[in-house]
Amino acid sequence: MRVINRALGWVSSRFLAAYAGLALLYLMLPIITIALFSFNDPVGRSNYSWASFTFDNWLTLFRDPTLVKAVGTSLRIALVSTIIATTIGTLMAMALVRYRFRFRKAIDLFVFLPLATPEIVLGASLLTLFVTLQIPLGELTLILAHVMFNVSYVVVTMKARLAGFDMRLEEAAADLGATPWQTFWRVTFPLILPGIAASAVLAFGLSLDDFVITRFNAGQVQTFPVYIYLKVQKGIPPQVNAFATLFFVATVSLVAIGALLQRRRANLKP
Amino acid sequence: MGLIRRHPALVPLLLLAPGLTWLFSFYLAPNIQMFASSFWNGTLESGFSFSLANWVNYPNALGTYQVQYVRSIQYGFAATVLCFAIAFPLAYFIAFKAGRARNALLFIVVAPFFTSYLLRTIGWRTILGDDSIILGPLKSIGLVDPSARFLDTPFSVIAGIAYNFVPFMILPIYVSLEKIDRRLLEAAQDLYASSWGAFRRVTLPLAIPGIFAGSLLTFIPAIGDFINAELLGNPGTTMIGNVIQRQFLVVRDYPTAAALSFMLMVLILAGVALYARLLGTEELTSKAI
């Protein structure tokens, strides 16, 4: 009986490992495909089937001025909306985690609602508002929209980080005569900085990649995803794959560096 | 500073003010406006006018696009089930068996978010294409029927949706599994539970909140999605999202589009409310990421 049980256990754990391996491969497959096809020299306009290997797409990264402009617009909107959303989202998370006040639970749920609303509803409702108020669609409306959906993500991430914060450190600073302002900048801020950085990376990525809400509120402005969408019918130039691979590698490196820095800091602690 | 010192109760209010103002202006107000717009009639050229008599927009819209509504719910449900089948074993593996590789594996789970959503979806066109790198060999050795088509079918749409939202299922399940006190499992073993018994009566019940949160977080974006149906489907796989975006951006029939979006929103909020009733709001709002 025990032998059979052991054997079954061995088989099921191998099976689980194989299943998990396949699931991870499934997650990576489209990413690998995107990177691979940045080295493809497509026959005709569409870049769906493999033809031959080339570095050309990387050497001619900036060939299409519309694409370069779209990438620039995306980066600009992502940067501005990330700065605003991370700032106001962090402040909100501090209020929700550290203070007890009336309607706290209701506000908590309200902040969560944009995450529980389909993107298409977020985009469409903003469009009706902008149309009614006759606000011209463009980069400004996109920044307003991107900050809106990013604030909720920042609040949720920061809340989780702040929940583990040791309040005694601030009390100690106060006992040693620090003003609240000094306590914040010398104790609290350095400690929550990794959380802020993680939220900012998340917000930046979400903004850079947003298509649905952007599509509704962009007017004539083209962001990187809008450019891709408009090119689907005519064929997506392989330089798009090169840019996407570049973004992926940049983000992954950023996250890896962040993790390494945090590990080093943790090791320095006695 | 003096004001804050005299009224410390103002501090949370001041911290919340900018964020709440933003969400009131660009989340709440737009939704109220959208609700109002669903009672409009007229066109963009002639101008819209509001009248409560236009409640008929709702039954009219529902009557015309009932098929797409039902299809969205079906596809969303199928994609959620598929996500669960992929996510649970993976989350279990990462939480219990991955050891030091845990963070690296979690990173792979969120890695798709670091590449373009549209390109990932288009990537599936390459992968599922009739003679693709994967299907071609499988077809030539006879594992897959050579005449089988995967692209531009309901299958590819559902698979695409599942792919795009599966991390939202994996992460909450992982969080709930990871939180389980290992001593409970040891206790179950000490009390002669088989490993299957311990799984069924200890692990699974404790993972329920994560499974619920994951299902909701997958189902919500899934039923509102239109990218997968557009890029991986055919005219017979149109979802409600495709209709809404067409009505808003091409036909510009704002009243119908607003009514359709509002109904979608109500459907989803009903799901969230049900969840909050069953499991509490803290659970959901803290598990989202």
Helix content of chain A: over 70%
- Which value, in Å, is the CA radius of gyration of chain B? 24 Å
> Which class best fits the helix and strand makeup of chain B?
mainly alpha
Can you count the helices of chain B?
13
Biggest β-sheet description of chain B: 2 strands, antiparallel
Described by the principal axes of the CA atoms, the overall outline of chain B is: globular
Strand content of chain B: under 5%
Provide a descriptive summary of the structure in words.
Chain A has 270 residues and is mainly alpha-helical. Chain A contains eleven helices and no strands. The longest helix of chain A has 35 residues. The N and C termini of chain A lie far apart (50 Å). The mean pLDDT of chain A is 89. In chain B, β1 and β2 form a beta hairpin. The longest helix of chain B has 40 residues. Chain B starts with a helix and ends with a helix. Chain B has a two-stranded antiparallel sheet. With 289 residues, chain B is mainly alpha-helical. Classes of the chains: A mainly alpha (270), B mainly alpha (289).
